[in-house]
Design goal:
The protein is α/β, with parallel strands linked by helices. It has 15 helices and 18 strands. The protein is about 50% helix and about 20% strand. The protein is elongated, with a radius of gyration of 36 Å.
């Protein structure tokens, strides 16, 4: 009986295996990386790599054209590539594209590195922006940084760390580690054909179908294990960034973040000076929180942020103190200098536009001049409140006895006295004030 049961179990297992064969991967997912590598691109790639399952996705292709990007975003992408159970191919395309700086590191981390004809790769030297160095920018900018005296101990430590990092990536996938070190140390670049001959990349392909054909059957390292790529016949599916990625890209745009910061600051200031207005405070709070979130993700020089806020504060102080422009001009100067310092000028895709700086400075100055003009005009107006406003006011005697009585002025009762007795109902005019007693005369 036991043997019969075992035999039945074996046949059942075999039947189940025949009835439900293993599902082969059906798709090649293409992710487009076009532009600077920042928080939005990193979020897009990491999420799509997490979604890719070996059961349905045979390979993920990063079709890349980038001038570089942020170190933190680059490392997030590389960590996701190295942990992905699906082979990741970095494909520098179309013709005319480049994988500069951060793009070079990502290509070296990928199971397959490929390029289209007429593309280039390299220039991976980090850029110093008054703080941590970032992978990005042109070779000319990097050379100018070095010639400017940046080759100190801290810079050498960062360069050596970047070299060690890209060498470790080269070792994982068996690529040219010496050239990678030169790309970091000397910012060298290579066109596609030379990159292939020096074993910097594995394939030169005209398009994605050609790429899938050429890498089919290759054995690569995927999640630390050797795996054979089966890319022939896969359906090519391009996954575009969703609304979340587009929103994050918008918010982390330095120009947008800078404008949101100003709207937030000015909104809270208007709410502070006009309590109960609600709208300025609500809009300002939302914009300020979003701006601070964006600034936390971007390479920001906080001395520049401080100067921008000091400039705004000086312009507001000018409007209230009335120093006839001296403080306000200083505020405008501090604002412009802070805006220029706020974001790294050598980082492609993460520099503040000069047009935005000029426009924001002009708008802030115009607001300051408007407030100052209103303040000066208000100083020239006659006093309409307080005790001084009662002089010359007209009213009516409501009770009188001798030279003293009570009068009604602007709906209020006041004690009053006059040189001569007045009749009740007589129209009067205030000529002077003695404490809480008004000196009146008949109108």
């Amino acid at each position: 009986m036991m043997r019969l049961r075992a035999l039945v179990f074996v046949f059942a297992a075999l039947f189940a295996g025949i009835a439900a064969p293993a599902r082969a991967a059906e798709r090649a997912v293409v992710l487009d990386v076009d532009g600077a590598i920042g928080p939005a691109i990193a979020d897009y790639i990491v999420r799509e790599l997490h979604r890719a399952s070996p059961d349905s996705v045979g390979v993920v292709v990063l079709r890349m054209n980038t001038p570089g990007g942020l170190d933190t975003s680059m490392r997030q992408i590389i960590s996701a590539i190295l942990a992905s159970p699906v082979p990741v191919v970095t494909y520098v395309a179309p013709s005319g594209a480049r994988a500069a700086s951060a793009g070079t590191y990502i290509a070296y981390a990928s199971a397959i590195a490929a390029m289209a004809p007429g593309t280039n790769i390299g220039a991976a030297t980090p850029i110093q922006i008054g703080g941590p160095m970032l992978p990005g920018g042109s070779a000319d900018q990097k050379k100018s940084d070095k010639s400017g005296g940046a080759e100190d101990t801290e810079t050498r430590k960062i360069i050596n760390d970047a070299i060690a990092y890209i060498r470790s990536l080269a070792a994982i996938n068996g690529r040219n580690a010496d050239w990678a070190a030169d790309a970091v140390r000397s910012a060298v670049s290579l066109p596609a054909t030379e990159a292939l001959s020096l074993h910097v990349v594995d394939v030169v392909a005209d398009n994605v179908p050609d790429l899938l054909h050429k890498i089919d059957g290759r054995t690569v390292t995927v999640a630390g294990k050797p795996e054979r790529i089966a890319s022939a016949g896969l359906e090519v599916v391009t996954v575009t960034p969703d609304w979340r990625t587009e929103l994050l890209a918008l918010v982390t745009n330095p120009n947008v973040a800078f404008i949101l910061l100003l709207i937030g600051v000015y909104g809270l200031i208007l709410e502070f000076f006009n309590p109960g207005a609600v709208a300025p405070g609500l809009i300002g709070s939302i914009c300020l929180v979003v701006a601070l979130y964006a600034l936390a993700l971007l390479p920001v020089n906080y001395a520049g942020v401080a100067l921008v806020l000091i400039g705004v504060g000086l312009m507001i102080a000018e409007a209230h103190i009335g120093a006839f422009g001296a403080i306000g001009v200083g505020g405008i100067v501090a604002f412009v200098i802070g805006a220029l310092m706020m974001f790294p000028s050598g980082m492609p895709g993460f520099a503040l536009s000069n047009g935005v700086i000029v426009g924001a400075a002009i708008a802030s100055a115009a607001l300051f001049l408007l407030v100052l003009a209103v303040l000066l005009r208000s100083r020239k107006r006659p006093v309409v409140t307080g005790g001084e406003a009662l002089i010359g006011a007209a009213g009516e005697a409501v009770w009188w006895q001798g030279n003293e009585g009570r009068v009604s002025i602007k709906g209020e009762l006041w004690r009053a006295r006059a040189k001569a007795p007045l009749q009740v109902g007589t129209r009067i005019k205030v000529v002077d004030r003695d404490g809480l007693v008004l000196v009146v005369d008949s109108a």
